[in-house]
Amino acid sequence: MKAGTYLCGAMLVLGLTAHVAAGELRNPDGFNTPQDHVIKRSQVEDFAQVGPNATFVCTSTSKSCTEKDGPFDKNGQLKAEGKVESVAYGRADSKDVSGLQLQRTYERVIKQMGGRLVAVMLGQSEKTGQMRQVHLIERKDQKKWVFVDTRSQYTLLNLSVITETALPDILTAGEFKSQLETQGYVALNVNFDTNKSVVLDSDKPTLDQVVSLLALSPDLRLSVDGHTDNEGNAAANKQLSQQRAEAIVAYLVNAGVAKDRLVAKGFGSETPVADNRTEEGRAKNRRVELVKPKPSVHSASDKPTDSVLLSLLAR
């Protein structure tokens, strides 16, 4: 499986990275596991596109969806982009899922959440339960598109919640330097596949700016600090954060940065910057930071006196 690309049933999800702690299976924020079902797999992408191979009909017009109706292309295919939380459910007794019953349940639940049914798959069958439906939940300035898929596999329900977000900006070497000088650290906008510590191609432009920063500041030394949220095993998370920090250091060294200018540190979940009880908080806690070491401070009493220096010279 390529980095940032995975399949959920027959639904293709393309994204930058996955963020799920070791052995962790969880629901999208605000949703619960359906009754008599269990989570088979789950994944979170900071930025991705959900694009099932299907044409959708908008409920408001009974016609094929277009760009004017939301995140659809001219052919009526869904192209929702943003933060993607995907999960696959199966029945606890391993029987086939009831597609129609599940779709109706999500229609009711999402309506209670203030959402609405926006589009249904062209040719979907309520009789067989092979259905794909798109819902929209709008709150203040935030839009969440909810894709419910009971068509791909009779034994699974695939749910994706896409929260619209902007593409992350890549900081320049100058911006890195400015933040380091003003606050002593800067967060790297880099990501990793689930339980992996391999630097992704999508993050290399960001790391190349760090290389430029260090070239422009030959006396600068940095600590590369890895952090996680508190989901999963604490020891495993700390080890993984260390491995990821080391992977970034290795990339920078391979790009020509002297090894003695860098140190890798993994802190796991020990130093959160946000509330781990919410998905938003956990996302902020999963981070890699460049930290500028604080200069050593010596008091006047630490400085050798003239008499001491003379005594040393006389030996």
UniProtKB/TrEMBL annotation:
Presence of keyword Membrane: yes
Organism: Hydrogenophaga crassostreae
Secretion signal, residue range per the UniProt entry: 1-22
The keyword Zinc-finger is assigned to this record: no
Compartment annotation: Cell outer membrane
PANTHER family to which the protein is assigned, alphabetical: LIPOPROTEIN YIAD-RELATED (PTHR30329:SF21), STATOR ELEMENT OF FLAGELLAR MOTOR COMPLEX (PTHR30329)
InterPro entries assigned to the protein according to its UniProt record, in alphabetical order: Bact_OuterMem_StrucFunc, OMP_bac, OmpA-like, OMPA-like_CS, OmpA-like_sf
Primary subcellular site in the record, as a coarse category: membrane
CDD domains: OmpA_C-like (cd07185)
Protein name: OmpA-like domain-containing protein
Span of domain OmpA-like: 179-296
Entry keyword set: Cell outer membrane, Membrane, Signal
GO cellular component, one term: cell outer membrane
